[in-house]
DNA sequence: ACTTGTGAATTAATTCACAGCT
DNA sequence: AGCTGTGAATTAATTCACAAGT
């Protein structure tokens, strides 16, 4: 794809790498903090440190968006905030429904950073009729029967699934049938969706298992003490920071 | 690293790719489901479908662990469950502390899949003295003052941070100072940790922003309808399944 | 003098495609 | 005949290192 890309307007080649897209929110958060402290400009070095990446990566990432910096100076904070927000589609408002209002669903509903960016909780939905009408985070919970109507009326395209694993696929199917095309899944299940629907998962159990793997590795190394040529510094994985490749996450689920 | 790997026992070359490690829990979950249904063997094709990956990737992943399959037949489910569990370090028990018992912390404490694999909630910790002693998920909440003592007494090496963003770094520092070397961070902040400490993050806001990016892209394409040579099939990104590269996740946080 | 933007080099991950074993 | 295991090819991501601009 790098080789034979069909010629383009030259000013902006569509197709930002996924790895870059996944970091843009990180940069945006760091920039927003700077903006709140009224910092006018920032260098790639400083911003990279704040976002927990290295500066070459950050510059390369930004190069996919365009040339928004000034050589010898750095980046204008406000301008970059705007450009990244626009690139991520945060200049518009995204109504979101949360399905499954247990502990986790309630935590998500209460999450402040939600509204701060372009997301708005359009509805909270739960299968328990006893929950209906009860306000969570100031929003009354609605019954699952209303799901299709809510999605169509509010033009919801993003759904969050925080149900038990057993209900997730069924909820997913209804969301998709009603018009949702992006799903954030907290249930520990693989969701099957048709072409054109994006799913991202958040899975606590998976994350813990990945940590356990590295933890075990560390414990084993104490004793190992390889008596060979022993490459001193660089040999070890670049632990800490940096979440490595892949894009997994753990699913949380009440009860 | 692929080129100049120091000669090894040949039977097992240390160094499983990060991307593979991140998928092992996925395979394990699928295998556990098969095991519960008493399925004795499974082919790479079937297992891959259940885990939501393609079979070549799965086979390559397994090849890093060793040769645990039988050509012409497939994999023995029980045997694979054991091998992967061992590789992930799940044959031992990992005490975990959860710091910050808001909505999210409570959701995590109640999460069933916790104990089912090798993880055990050693303690729930919160800074609010009013919470102290109150049971959540059957475990009494303890005050932050006890943090160091708990970690040392129980030999805790994995900590989960579910505090507000403002408290996260401070909690992290205390966890690390007390001996924790793996952290799962739900607070929307970059954590600074010393070499040798692993951090993974779970960030709701980041996940939603990534979805918004793709959602915006989809909306834009409706109108685009490129009248050029129009590469029909393969051209579009492989949406759905597959979380793409990187390894980000969103942070959740109560209020 | 300083910092961006980016080709080129490197490293990692994925996918192909088939030899090798059951 | 069927399915694994894996070299080889491909594609993606990261890092280097420096030319180009202010």
UniProtKB/TrEMBL annotation, chains A, B:
DNA-binding region boundaries:
26-65
Q: Which Pfam families match?
A: CoA_binding, Put_DNA-bind_N
The CoA-binding domain, residue ranges: 89-190
Ribosomal protein keyword on record: no
Question: Which InterPro entries does the UniProt record give?
Answer: CoA-bd, NAD(P)-bd_dom_sf, Rex_actinobacterial-type, Rex_DNA-bd_C_dom, Tscrpt_rep_Rex, WH-like_DNA-bd_sf, WH_DNA-bd_sf
UniProt subcellular location? Cytoplasm
Which parts of the sequence bind NAD(+)? 100-105
The record's section on SMART domains has: CoA_binding
Q: Where is this region: Disordered?
A: 219-255
Which UniProt keyword terms apply here?
Cytoplasm, DNA-binding, NAD, Repressor, Transcription, Transcription regulation
Biased composition range(s): Low complexity: 225-235
Q: Does the keyword Transcription regulation apply?
A: yes
Name the Gene3D superfamilies for this protein: NAD(P)-binding Rossmann-like Domain (3.40.50.720), Winged helix-like DNA-binding domain superfamily/Winged helix DNA-binding domain (1.10.10.10)
Give the multimer and partner information: Homodimer.
Function noted in UniProt? Modulates transcription in response to changes in cellular NADH/NAD(+) redox state.
The family assignment reads:
Belongs to the transcriptional regulatory Rex family.
The name on file for this protein is Redox-sensing transcriptional repressor Rex
Q: Which organism is it from?
A: Streptomyces lancefieldiae
UniProt lists the gene as rex
């Amino acid at each position: 794809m790098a080789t034979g890309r069909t010629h383009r307007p030259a000013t902006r080649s569509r197709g930002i790498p996924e790895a870059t897209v996944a970091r843009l929110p990180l940069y945006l958060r760091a920039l927003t903090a700077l903006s709140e402290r009224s910092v006018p400009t920032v260098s790639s070095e400083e911003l990279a440190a704040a976002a927990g990446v290295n500066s070459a990566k950050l510059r390369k990432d930004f190069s996919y968006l365009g040339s928004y910096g000034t050589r010898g100076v750095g980046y204008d904070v406000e301008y970059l905030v705007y450009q990244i927000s626009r690139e991520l589609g945060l200049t518009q408002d995204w109504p979101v429904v949360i399905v499954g209002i247990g502990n986790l669903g309630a935590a998500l509903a209460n999450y402040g950073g939600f509204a701060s960016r372009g997301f708005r909780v359009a509805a909270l939905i739960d299968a328990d009729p006893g929950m209906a009408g009860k306000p969570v985070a100031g929003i009354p919970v609605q019954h699952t029967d209303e799901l299709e109507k809510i999605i169509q009326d509010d033009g919801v395209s993003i759904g969050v699934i925080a149900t038990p694993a057993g209900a997730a696929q069924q909820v997913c199917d209804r969301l998709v049938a009603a018009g949702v095309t992006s799903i954030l899944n907290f249930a520990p299940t693989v969701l099957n969706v048709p072409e054109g629907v994006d799913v991202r998962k958040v899975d606590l159990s998976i994350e813990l298992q990945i940590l356990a793997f590295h933890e075990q590795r560390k414990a084993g190394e104490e004793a190992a003490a390889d008596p060979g040529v022993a490459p001193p510094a660089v040999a070890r994985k670049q632990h800490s920071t940096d979440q490595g490749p892949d894009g997994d996450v753990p699913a949380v689920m009440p009860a």
